Amino acid sequence: MHSHSGPAISRRALLIGGTVLATTTSLARVARAAPAEPNVIELTAAPGRAPIVGAPYPPTDVWCYGNRIPGPEIRVRQGERVRVVVRNQLPEDTTVHWHGIRLPNSMDGVPGLTQPPIKPGESFTYEFTPPDAGTFWYHPHADSLRQLGRGMAGAFIVEEPTAVSADRDLVWMLSDWRLTSEAQIAAGFGNAMEAAMSGRVGNTVTLNGAITDEVPVRAGERVRLRLVNSSLARIMSLRFEGHRPAIVAIDGQPCDPHEPERGRVVLGPAMRIDLMIDMQGEPGRRYRVIDDFYEGLSYWLTQLVYEDKPPLRAHHLEPSPSLPRNPLPEPDLAAAERRELRLQGGMMGGGGMMGMGGMQGMSHGASWAINGTSMTGDGHADMPPLLTLQLGRSYVLIIRNQTAWWHPMHLHGHSFRVMTRNGTAAPHRQWADTVLVPPKESVEVAFVADNPGDWMMHCHVTDHQVSGMMTVLRVV
């Protein structure tokens, strides 16, 4: 399924493209003092229409925040208190999950588990102080398969106290859609056969909510590019022709700057990666950004189009510096308790179900399980914890993927250190909140259980989550 050597790439293997929302930053910009009063933001969740494909196709009927796709980009400063008033104008319940932000349990947005769902016509106020700078995002955690699949997602950027040296700071919200020939969202959410395999992978990939062929850049500039994969199921492997991007953060957490393995930036659903890219191409030329994760289905996402102007600076910049680290507690590996999570179920290559026999906790409609127990849906009251963790103690989770499919495993309320893959130490000091676990492989992650409450842990292939690959870790 996953190939690092795709076939020749056509101009369009599917409907694809991008537009850019840019925030220009000065290399010498100085941080502002955070205000004492909360930064108040209002978000309205409602049906809308968006020109996803563009002429000659009609606008697409979507569900969205702030009457736009993606939702409004929220930018705050590290340590700045935020108050977000969410109004629900959808025809059904909703919530908002602030993905990757270490916040109080009551603000986590899981219906029933951490808050009552927001009923149609009602509102809910989220208030928290992001402790970490980085790239995060927000999305529903109620009827998430349909609500996220219809467009409800937005970027949440927490800026460092002192600006990072870059000429521009760009966010690419990457979304995957299944559209009809009339550019409308196709029916069929929750297909049981599909849920037991790779999930709902679409036929259209957008960049910041639209399809276009080019992103303007200038020779000699340094761009901080924040990638967010808000897809239901699509895994991406991006290659920047003619460029050597450096990964400087994963899931909002700084890492040792390094070039991606084999030049490909791999993003599972819900994952974020910050790149520093020095634009060293030739003025007037075009360079493709290619996604070749799925064997035989390579396509180009967009093109970096160089302005026909002299380079911004005469000399190359020094290598990308490390970003300032966030105040994450270091796990005590010598004293850490080790717990195992076995990912089970799904369809095998031959068409039969895998590893489902003898699972006592299986519920109706479940295709997946963790340690023999499945939890379906998006969250509800009285979900029993799979593990009870002691507040302040260090833990190592051994995540064993016993299935034939990829799983981006996300833990709410915490970030963890990725320690090993298949027993080999992970390079580049990686912290994350969503770790992509390939078929038949294992990953070890370590963290301090320092945030009390009942926290969801689930696969972020949304079909997998709602059909059983979800559990709760209780920190007391």
UniProtKB/TrEMBL annotation:
GO MF, one annotated term: oxidoreductase activity
Protein's UniProt name: Copper oxidase
PANTHER family per the UniProt record, alphabetical: MULTI-COPPER OXIDASE (PTHR11709), MULTICOPPER OXIDASE LPR1 (PTHR11709:SF2)
Key words of the record: Metal-binding, Oxidoreductase
Top-rank lineage group of the source organism: Bacteria
Keyword Transcription regulation carried by entry: no
GO cellular component: outer membrane-bounded periplasmic space
SUPFAM superfamilies (UniProt xref): Cupredoxins
Annotated ranges, domain Plastocyanin-like: 59-161, 169-287, 377-475
Keyword Oxidoreductase belongs to the record: yes
